[in-house]
Write a structure and sequence with these properties.
Blueprint (H helix, E strand, L loop, with lengths): L6 E5 L5 H5 L6 E6 L7 E6 L6 H12 L6 E5 L5 H12 L3 E4 L15 H9 L3 E4 L11 H11 L3 E4 L8 H10 L3 E4 L10 H8 L3 E2 L3 H7 L10 H6 L3 H9 L6 H8 L3 H13 L3 E4 L2 E4 L1
Parallel strand pairs: 3-4, 3-7, 4-5, 5-6, 7-8, 8-9
Antiparallel strand pairs: 1-2, 2-6, 10-11
Helix pairs in contact: 2-3, 2-12, 5-6, 10-12
Length: 289
């Protein structure tokens, strides 16, 4: 695998255009894999390692809604929302960039459990990016430093969840310093994981509660609803299983029992079906349209 994806060193003059603009650009960037075209909109997605079910659902739903758009998803390969953002981008066919706090080689990547995810990103045509050369071990002080690269190379930063005091907010503050758009997902007033995002919203971040909100914030055309017949024909087998089960309105629990699908797979198919206009969520149940 290492030999298949060699690491290139980009000099300061070769950095991505947006990254060259920031006040403290890296002297060099080590890129393993292929950077998305600069014509794409780069969206950095950040959130906590200990996310809520709501945060995972919103992250998956929003990124899935960007499928077929010229958007690249940037995140940090960390546990939690970062990994969800990368995996959802891969499933949606979007290029994704992992900015890491170590060297970009397999032996240096952290966390070790995400080496396989990094390999999937590379195989799908994405890349692993670091300010440090191959062979550099991960260190705590490298992660806040890498956040400026995540913020600097993006057109906008989407904060899915953030506690009042969290590392997630570091990236959003840097984005503001770099004159990037900051987008925040609202959450429950009772959830500590929403305290940071709500503060960002008070300070002027754009509210993103739907795919339509996200498209508008990124300056992309609104999604058009595909014809139901065409959408039906393009669905994966698991989605057909869900549709077949919805002969009557069902709660998520009843639907999981009836289909036998794992929760993560079921939630993904529900998102796809809802975006295709084939199902709707009403008073705690899912039903066919």
């Amino acid at each position: 695998m290492e030999a298949m994806f060699t690491t290139r060193r980009l000099s300061a003059a070769q950095l991505p255009p947006l990254l060259r603009e920031i006040a403290d650009p890296p002297d060099a960037l080590y890129v393993r894999g292929r950077l998305p075209p600069s014509s794409h909109t780069f969206l950095t997605v950040v959130g906590p390692r200990r996310h809520t079910t709501y945060g995972k659902t919103m992250c998956t739903r929003l990124i899935t809604g960007l499928a077929s758009r010229p958007v690249a998803i940037v995140s940090g390969l960390a546990l939690g929302i970062d990994a969800i953002a990368h995996r959802t981008a891969l499933e949606a066919g979007l290029p994704t960039v992992a900015v890491v706090g170590s060297g970009p080689d397999d032996a240096s990547l952290y966390p070790r459990t995400h080496v396989s995810l990094a390999q999937k990103i590379l195989k799908a045509g994405g890349c692993i990016v670091s300010e440090d050369p191959p062979g550099t071990p991960a260190a705590k002080w490298r992660f806040p430093r890498r956040n400026r690269i995540m913020a600097g190379m993006a057109h906008a930063v989407l904060v899915v969840e953030a506690a009042e005091k969290s590392g997630t907010l570091i990236t959003s503050r840097l984005a503001l310093d770099y004159n990037r758009d900051v987008l925040a997902v609202p959450g429950s007033a009772l959830s500590p994981n929403s305290a940071g995002t709500h503060r960002l919203l008070k300070e002027g971040a754009a509210l993103v509660a739907s795919v339509e909100d996200l498209l508008e914030a990124l300056g992309l055309p609104a999604a058009s609803s595909p014809p139901k017949a065409a959408a039906h024909g393009a669905l994966p087998p698991e989605a057909h299983t869900v549709l077949a089960a919805l002969r009557e309105p069902l709660t998520p629990e009843a639907l999981a029992e009836k289909t036998g699908l794992a929760a993560e797979i079921l939630n993904r198919q529900l998102t796809l079906l809802e975006l295709a206009g084939l199902i709707a969520h009403h008073h705690g149940t899912w039903l066919r349209r």
